[in-house]
Specification:
The complex is a heterodimer of chains A (about 350) and B (about 600). By secondary structure, chain A is an alpha/beta fold. Chain A has helices at about 35-50, 65-70, 90-100, 110-115, 120-130, 170-180, 190-205, 230-235, 285-300, 315-320, 330-335, 340-350, and strands spanning about 60-65, 80-85, 105-110, 130-140, 140, 150, 185-190, 210-215, 235-240, 240-245, 260-265, 270-275, 300-310. Among the domains of chain B are: about 100-200 and about 350-415, FAD/NAD(P)-binding domain, CATH 3.50.50.60; about 205-350, FAD/NAD(P)-binding domain, CATH 3.50.50. Chain B is built from 22 helices and 24 strands. In chain B, the strands form seven sheets. A five-stranded parallel sheet of chain B has the order 3-2-1-4-16, covered by helices on one side. A five-stranded parallel sheet of chain B has the order 6-14-7-8-9. In chain B, strands 10, 11, 12 and 13 form a four-stranded antiparallel sheet that branches. The chains are: A alpha/beta (about 350), B alpha/beta (about 600).
Chain lengths: ~350, ~600
């Protein structure tokens, strides 16, 4: 019987700059179905945090309800966590960020949690450009309630029971671009080589970073005829570019070729090195990103990789000029500026 | 890299490190599980089938399995395999009805076994049930060879030895004890085959000044041990020097402590770390207040008024050249005098075959060793076979047993007029173990316990009686806990490419980062590119056939916990936990 992971780890496991091994970013053993794409995404988050030298106690992970929203238990066991109400993760994340903007916020949601019950929350958190990473583990079905079609199921996709979905899907990534999200990417749970640098870039991005990850439900939506199965996604995947994340501390030696490659400098000086760029696509240009999405869809392809990035937009804290330090660190002198200030204020209202 | 051929029985065999390292290839995890289940008699019989002397080996084996144990690479210490074997022997109860009982239908062939030690007895056990008429010759008064004459009773009680020797002799073996064979040629005409298992019966002497004058108090270690075992020697002087750093030296010094030696010292030429004795035997000696003086090279025996008074030694330092070859260089300090009433010389053993005529067509090499095939144990005289220390020089009991099995196969093939070099293949079985979603037929959960220590009787008692066993053995509860430390390496992670959907679940869940899906490359670069670097090149990489995405699955066998999580998290059963049983060939199994 193995409900617990053995305590032993590989003795030669490398350590990151903080002296942590990848195992230090793990959570408890997953209780999701064997082979669930969500577990791969959890592993990618673990890998990204390990490689970014993130201090686990400087991360908060938040989620709503659903298979996806169970996953924060399975990664970053030493970080803060909040498993909130169905579809309400963005509100809780906003509140948490208001109270302490110094933490890194990772929100995990699913297609039901974001595209159905939480759609209102989803659009408004984008509109406000909250500084967080928002990952949707998108399997096109309600796995927790035995696999009914969700709002992101493609029209014509066949369920395990054999019924064909008659409704148009909500394309969360296109919607995020349309709503002005400042970092939008799409990926596949079975492609860690792409997913890990995307998560790293999203964590370094200052502002709202959205990653829609197609994550096959092995139990209810991995059948022939489904458009979210491992085989279908692998056959129809098309990448905007290959992506390399170069932390700002590392010396950059490679020269890039402006024709087929580009480099994006993130706020902290880290670099995104994109190679094999898709035609007519510029990651800094919203219109080209939206049109690349439309074109791919019309060809029946799933466009993955970085879709759009804007490093110059103001995030929520900058917009509302919130106080930089966590609220629990404000003492009386910060909160009570004294009677002279009050007098000035009163005078100004006369 | 090429796709691993898992149909080669040696691939999965090698994953079972303990069994692979054991000269007799005892299926260790199989019997450890039975011990955990309290099925001691079943565990004992698995051992008995394979290594013939579980009770003896459970106390005295050199344990090549333990340094090989995967547990030792995952944490500090390997599983206490040897002492678990003893638990099976201690708690087995009466197993006589499971031991083959004669009379067996005779096949008309007669085989002589020269020497009554572990190698010969193994041959006897393998051949007697097949109908061979077996004659064992030994100069001692009873069977067991060096297990009786050289291993002291405080490590191996006589009753344990007698039981296991008698299991074999009671199969209707004709014994010729107190019978020193002084001519091979005289025996040859009477037998269809002759097996020589005479061991390495001669202790090395040390010819230094004073050796002859002090002779009355200078003894050869193994001869002295035999003389104690057969009750000819009952005492030794108060001050004793034991020369040598091997296990015989440890037995000599500890026996001396029980025969009146109060200040017993082991003196060894080499540095402490280089000593040949097993670490646990050195510890046991030091525990009995026996200091080990290292880096002391004997210079002379000191004799005064015709009586030994001690020895002088040169102090040296070990220096190693770039090839690691050691030389002992004198430190230039004045020689050290160590007082002694008696000196025991335990500096090695040599083979000697004065009783084998050199004109029989049985060739000897330049070192006086018989020319023997390592595969068939056959000498250049086709009907004469060798095994144990007599074949290739001093080794240990378990190696002698392995030789015995091999020689028995050869003798059987030879007597049936078949090709001796055409050996039977090992028998293997691979069968899946799934019982439910989280349930396997074995305890897949990995216990985190550290190795348990075997309790010992207090030395105030044991030093007074040379027959009182020092180690008490695990009790049943501790044995269970120690058995649970076994990683069940024989339950193999079997991968089926055609079922894999490359969901990465196995790679993500593996606690020891053994699994990687990657593009194929050459071994050297792959080993550095895996989820965790595979630096232990003694351990194989399991390489799958090319998968749908063009990648391959690579599993580094090195620190796999065999916890079964890969198989539990696999949605398609591309991973399965399958128990691999490897049985070495035995005499009497027909060759296909």
């Amino acid at each position: 019987m193995s409900f617990q992971r053995p305590l032993f780890r590989h003795p030669n496991l490398p350590k990151n700059e903080l002296g942590f091994a990848k195992a230090d970013y793990e959570g408890t053993l997953s209780t999701l179905c064997a082979g669930c794409g969500h577990d791969s995404i959890s592993a990618a988050i673990v890998q990204a945090c390990y490689e970014l030298n993130v201090e686990p106690h400087r991360v908060a992970k938040l989620s709503g309800i659903g298979c996806s929203s169970k996953t924060p238990t399975y990664f970053l066991g030493n970080s803060h966590g909040f498993n909130s109400v169905h579809g309400r993760m963005p509100s809780v994340a906003t509140g948490a960020s208001m109270a302490n903007r110094t933490l890194k916020y990772i929100g995990v949601s699913g297609d039901g949690d974001s595209a159905s019950i939480g759609m209102g929350q989803f659009v408004h958190v984008i509109r406000r450009n909250l500084n967080m990473v928002y990952i949707v583990m998108n399997n096109g079905c309600y796995g927790l309630t035995k696999g009914q079609d969700s709002a992101t199921a493609d029209v014509g996709s066949k369920s395990k029971a054999g019924s064909i979905n008659p409704f148009q899907p909500i394309d969360l990534a296109s919607m995020a671009i349309e709503l002005g999200a400042t970092f939008v990417a799409q990926s596949f749970s079975g492609d860690k080589r792409q997913l890990v640098p995307l998560i790293k870039a999203a964590m370094d991005h200052r502002g709202f970073a959205f990653i829609n990850v197609i994550s096959p439900c092995v139990t209810f939506n991995n059948n022939v005829g489904s458009t979210k199965s491992y085989d279908y996604v692998r056959d129809h995947i098309e990448a905007t570019a290959t992506i390399d994340f170069v932390p700002h501390a590392e010396e950059i030696t490679a020269q890039y070729d402006p024709g087929t490659e580009t480099e994006i400098t993130l706020h902290d000086g880290s670099l995104l090195h994109l190679k094999k760029l898709a035609n007519d696509w510029d990651p800094m240009d919203r219109i080209s990103a939206a049109s690349a999405m439309q074109k791919a869809r019309s060809k029946g392809q799933i466009l993955t990789g970085l879709l759009y990035i804007n490093e110059d937009a103001k995030n929520l804290h900058e917009t509302i000029e919130s106080v930089p330090s966590p609220l629990n660190q404000l003492d009386e002198t910060d909160l009570c500026p004294g009677s002279a200030v009050l007098d000035d204020l009163m005078m100004s209202l006369r | 890299m090429e796709t691993t051929n898992v149909n080669d029985p040696e691939y999965y065999h090698k994953v079972v490190d303990c069994q692979y390292a054991c000269p007799a290839h005892t299926p260790v995890p199989e019997y450890i599980r039975l011990i955990a289940a309290g099925r001691y008699a079943d565990a004992y019989m698995i051992n008995w089938e394979s290594n013939v002397f579980p009770g003896v080996l459970g106390r005295t084996c050199d344990r090549p399995c333990e340094p090989a144990c995967r547990r030792g690479r995952v944490e500090e210490e390997p599983v206490a395999i040897c002492r678990l074997k003893r638990v099976a022997a201690d708690h087995k109860g009466d197993v006589i009805d499971r031991i083959p009982q004669g009379p067996f239908t005779p096949n008309g062939k007669k085989v002589a076994l020269i020497g009554g030690g572990p190698a010969s007895l193994t041959v006897a056990r393998d051949l007697a049930p097949l109908g061979y008429e077996i004659h064992v010759y030994d100069e001692q008064i009873s069977g067991g060879g060096m297990m009786r004459s050289q291993i002291p009773s405080f490590r191996l009680p006589e009753s344990v030895l007698n039981e296991e020797v008698n299991f074999i002799l009671d199969m209707g073996i004709h014994t010729h004890f107190k019978h020193y064979v002084d001519s091979l040629s005289a025996l040859l005409p009477d037998y269809d085959a002759v097996f020589v298992g005479t061991g390495a019966p001669k202790g090395r002497d040390l010819k230094l000044p004073g050796r002859e004058e002090g002779d009355a108090n200078i003894h050869i270690g193994i001869e002295w041990l035999a003389s104690v075992a057969f009750e000819h020697t009952h005492s030794i002087g108060k001050k004793v020097i034991v020369l040598g750093g091997g296990n015989t030296a440890m037995d000599c010094c500890r026996t001396s402590r029980r025969l009146g030696g109060e200040e017993v010292k082991v003196v060894v030429r080499s540095p402490f770390e280089d000593m040949k004795a097993s670490p646990w035997e050195k510890e046991d000696a030091m525990h009995e207040d026996i200091p080990i003086l290292n880096n002391h090279v004997p210079k002379s025996f000191e004799v005064k008024d015709g009586k030994l008074i001690g020895m002088t030694f040169d102090r040296v330092e070990a220096q190693y050249d770039e090839n690691g070859k050691r030389s002992l260089i004198s430190t230039g300090e004045p020689p050290v005098f160590v007082e002694a009433d008696d000196v025991l010389i335990a500096i090695g053993q040599v083979n000697t075959f004065p009783w084998i005529e050199r004109d029989l067509g049985l060739e000897f090499d330049q070192w006086g060793m018989p020319v023997v095939s390592k595969q068939t144990y056959q000498s250049t005289l086709p009907k004469v076979f060798f095994g144990g220390d007599a074949a290739f020089g001093p080794e240990n009991v378990i190696t002698a047993v392995a030789h015995g099995h091999g020689a028995a196969i050869s003798i059987d093939l030879f007597c049936q007029e078949k090709e001796v070099a055409n050996r039977p293949a090992p028998r293997t079985n691979l069968f899946h173990q799934k019982m439910g979603i989280h349930e396997w037929s074995y305890d897949s959960a990995v216990a985190s316990d550290q190795r348990f220590v075997v309790p010992q009787a207090d030395k105030s008692v044991t030093l007074k009686d040379r027959k009182l066993e020092v180690e008490l053995g695990f009790d049943e509860r501790t044995a269970f806990q120690e058995a649970q430390r076994c990683l069940n390496c024989d339950v193999q992670t079997v991968f089926t490419e055609t079922k894999c959907i490359e969901c990465d679940a196995c790679m993500d869940v593996c606690p020891t980062s053994c699994i990687t899906f990657t593009e194929n490359a050459d071994e050297e670069s792959l080993r550095t590119q895996l989820s965790a670097p595979a630096l232990n090149t003694d351990q194989d990489l399991l390489v799958s056939d090319t998968l749908k995405t063009g990648r391959v699955m690579i599993k580094d066998e090195d620190v796999c916990l065999h916890c079964g999580l890969c198989a539990e998290r696999c949605p398609t059963s591309a991973w399965d936990m399958q128990k691999f049983l490897y049985n070495t060939p035995k005499a009497g199994i027909s060759v296909t």
